[in-house]
UniProtKB/TrEMBL annotation:
Protein name, as recorded: Diaminopimelate decarboxylase
Sequence positions that bind pyridoxal 5'-phosphate: G273, E315, P316, G317, R318, Y420
Record-stated family: Belongs to the Orn/Lys/Arg decarboxylase class-II family. LysA subfamily.
Pathway membership, UniProt: Amino-acid biosynthesis; L-lysine biosynthesis via DAP pathway; L-lysine from DL-2,6-diaminopimelate: step 1/1
Modification N6-(pyridoxal phosphate)lysine, positions: K91
Gene Ontology terms for molecular function: diaminopimelate decarboxylase activity; pyridoxal phosphate binding
Biological processes annotated in GO: lysine biosynthetic process via diaminopimelate
Active site: C390 (proton donor)
Organism of this sequence: Nocardioides luteus
One Pfam family named in its UniProt record: Orn_Arg_deC_N
Residues that coordinate or bind substrate: R318, R359, Y363, E391, Y420
Amino acid sequence: MSAHASPGSFTGTSPVWLKTPEDVNALVPALWSATAEKDANGVLTVGGVAVPDLVANINTPAYVLDEADFRERARAFRDAFTGYDVYYAGKAFLCTEVARWVAQEGLCLDVCSNGELSVALRAEVDPAKIGYHGNNKTPMELRRAIVAGVGRIIVDSFAEVERVAAIAAETGITASVMVRVTAGVEAHTHEYIATAHEDQKFGFSISSGDAFEAVRRLLDAPNVELRGLHSHIGSQIFDSSGFEVAARRVLALQARIRDELGTELPEMDLGGGFGIAYTTQDDPSTPKALAEELTAIVEHECRGFGLAVPHLSIEPGRAIVGPSMCTVYTVGTVKEVALDGGVTRTYVSVDGGMSDNIRTALYDADYSATLAGRASSAGPVLGRVVGKHCEAGDIVVKHEFLPADIAPGDLIAVPGTGAYGRSMASNYNHALRPPVVAVRDGESRVIVRRETEDDLFATDMG
Ligand code: LLP
């Protein structure tokens, strides 16, 4: 028996959330960018560009970025979070052109490394609208940020308190800072992307008193303007209870600062981490619902402590760029592998893998996939999309129903790869990192080109 299935009947080794599709060609709209659709021939188009035509020119694998969708998600956050500053978290995906879109849509930009800061400055993002994170910023990096006029440096350690104070004193430039605090919250997400529990590297613990002490020292430092407290609890979070607990603890600290140091810090950042739908098991909130929920939480807690509501900001990365991009691959081999119980799994090998999407291997992430170049009349089989790297864990999509006639040469597309796909891509096995092609209104534009062998050899001294 093979793992062929008719709708609703499949009982093989697929996870419970994966339902046998009525039509294996159909897109699940919630997983795709707004302009993605399939025509009657099963051809996937994004931004009015037919994916087979696009890759005929630029080859596969390729990341396809739906510009209108990206801009729309950025605007949705900006408009829903009225009165807030919205910082797009560039670590999710950043290149010069995308930094420009972020600025054009009226968002600020969160960078967390010297390299990301370089991209932001190259794109001529107003430095005052840049926030700079990182748990190990060097004195040189801090000096560069302060001299460039970066709007807020999020201070993460006592060493950094001293470094910032020294640079501000020496240059005479006022350094504008926030204090990254850890609220002791166990966010319900993968261990590697939770950031507010106590036993990890980021920020100052509230419960140990370190966060208070950092605030005290920064308030005492000449030429340092302390704007507020910053709390980011983790990533790919769906449940607002973590934000609620964090807000209560951060505002308790704000109250202690008022009571003991005589000042209410004017700002507060709630971080990013809003989840997106990778598969049908995910049900994310809208920016509007998130804004209402978070604002209500902060207002409630402020009332409880008798505090004024500070000027708020958030830092969404994934929720803006994640759904805006898909990755297009070409199928190279198809292999039926026998599983226990007499069923088979169809292993579909594509021309990329863990070098362009490490999230499946690193976080056990789920994705979905669809045939992108034609319609199939074959029934669905339980498939697994794997890469071409030398590792058994080189999996792109762990579980997906694919048409039984999937074959070498077929194009498949994986949605939701915009966040932490290209930005965490590597040259593993000397893979050449794929391009990012922006599509909009029937036009396509390469905004990050494909790497070449020359790029590989540029650093290999021979
Ligand atoms: N702000 C801070 C301080 C952060 O550390 C992060 C993410 C964000 C904002 C944006 O979080 P987002 O809205 O994108 O969830 N590579 C992992 C995610 C690591 C997130 C690191 N920090 C992944 O692929 O799931």
